[in-house]
Amino acid sequence: MSALDYPYKRTLRQETKKGIKKSEKSLGTNPLITRFNVKKVTAKTALTITLTLLLGLSLVFTLNIPTFAKDCDDISDLDDRAACYEEKKEEKEEEASSIKDSLENLREKIGELSGKITNLASQINITQGEINSLQATINELEKEIEEINKNLKDRRTTMAEKEKLRNTTLRNLSKKNVLTKWEKFIGGSDDLASLNGFEYATFNYIFDRALSKNALNWIKVLNEEIQSFEADKAEALELKNEIAQEQTNLIAVKTQMDRQKAEAENVKGALDEEKEEKTEKLLSLEEEIAKLSEKQQAILSQKYGSGYVSGYESAEYKLPDCPFDKGFAVMSYGAFTHYKGMSQYGAKGRAKDGQEYKEIIKFYYGEDVKEKDDFPDEVCVQNYGDMDFQEYLYGLAEMHDSWPEDALKAQAIAARSYAYRYVKAGKCICTSQSCQVFLKSKSDNPPGDWKDAVDDTKDKIIGGSTDASGYGWYSSTAGGYIENRGWDSDGNWPGNAYEKKAESPWFYKAWHTQSYHSNSSTCGRSTPWLDEEELVDILNAWVVWRKGDDGDKDNISPVTTSCWGGDPYSMDKMREKAGDYGEKYTSISKVHTPSFASGRTTEICFETNRGKKCLDGEEFKTVFNLRAPGYVAIRSRLFDIEMDD
């Protein structure tokens, strides 16, 4: 192959250099990523940032939780005991308020850290892609350099052969003493010495032209090829070294970002634990506060909907038309759930999307499916004694047999795992929703699809520790959020929630019935809609809840006394009391989209006669459930408000 035909890729080198400049430009937007200034991001700088962040978070989230040294029940004097209860109540409320503020800060900081981690992960992926691209270019250049070296060797070998041939020919001719026929024709004599000067010069000229020119031309061409290859090789080596240096810089940047991401994840993990602890403490405090007012406790217990529900209902729910000129419907996401383990409607939605049962189990429990070689043959069932494990599972009325196959298999594994815990504990499992709904008639004659799901998953349970909290738990509808697992959606929540795809009747519902049964008591109220005056009344009740004295707070209960009894303030009286505390509301013109975080509605905002007013989600839910008429209630930690005008 001649040098004129050699297809050396100059275009590749030009494009590679352009790519480096483009990469430098894009990475230059991030102060952590520059081509030649990686050394500025030092370990000392990273350590300073991390320590500052940790110190700041420590200062923000440090709380002094009070303790109570005395037990009010031990005080004999009734007045003193009442005073003690009042003191404890005030202290608990103050503590709860402090923890709520701390939780809000925690959620904000966790959100910031999550954003930082996501950004770092994105930058790391981009940087790794650049590194891989540069390595591919280096590999290609190395192949080209190898090809150049091969051609150089070939050209040098050929040139050496040509030079050897030329030299050998010249030596041989110099030793000859007899002229060739051509020489005889030119010289006309057998003796070169007899040639005159002109004849001898003519002979030499023709000799050089005829014999040497071809070899000399080859040598010249080979020299030019060698020089061209050497130049290409030098350029390729220079480009390779430049790219290798760029790759080294990027690797240093990626290492730094990996370190920062790990540090941010550690901080976020600590904050998540602190948030969980404070959330549990808050719930405990709210429970204690509720106990101090038995009437209010009874209202909240009823309206929150104690216990949880599994199983299914007809997938039909439509918010009724608003009967008012301006109405407000508080919509709960899910209800009667512990937010742990599998959502049955979520499993249905995932199966409809093509997910297999193992994938469904993996999401809801964070564990793989495993098969036990020594799975027990029997389980003790309340009122029935020991039963064959498979026959017991045949009788579970927890999921309709018309649901997708993989949803049924996921349910069979979850139910088997849940019952396995009872076997380990040596207890009989109950047959109601307090455990798992069991029907002997169904066990005796199981539907074909459900029986197949049970048989096909025989001896298979959820992996991990069977003593772990939530192991094998499930509920009908969690509202799109599972504790320790996150949002249950295929993309954005709530629009892409799997429970919504499965048409759960409880995924987004306004409640105004006494229980989850649609035909239960409504306290004479035919709609879940509130008119403007009723929602304004709840805002005024919130003012009294926050600022009022104990006597005022005790009068926050539904005005529908026929169902709840008590002595609630009328709407006029509640508005007057809110005015006494400097914050009276008379109108609501708009409800803003609420804020959601960690499976809770964290804030809800209204446009009122006093401008925009935002309330803590937990507080609004508590006051709403205390004051809303009849059985109108927020049944979930996640809620929204629809307005119809």
Can you characterise this structure?
This protein is an alpha+beta fold and 645 residues long. It folds into 3 domains: 12-291, no CATH class; 294-334 and 510-644, no CATH class; 342-501, no CATH class. It has helices spanning 10-27, 43-61, 78-175, 181-187, 197-291, 294-304, 344-352, 357-365, 389-394, 405-425, 440-444, 448-456, 498-501, 532-547, 550-553, 561-564, 571-580, 617-627, and strands at residues 327-332, 342-343, 369-371, 378-381, 385-388, 460-462, 474-475, 481-482, 486-487, 530-531, 588-591, 595-597, 600-608, 611-616, 639-644. The strands form 6 sheets. Strands 11, 12, 13 and 14 form a 4-stranded antiparallel β-sheet that branches. The chain has a 3-stranded antiparallel β-sheet with strand order 10-1-15. A two-stranded parallel sheet has the order 2-7. Helix 2 (43-61) packs parallel to helix 5 (197-291). It is elongated and about 145 Å long.
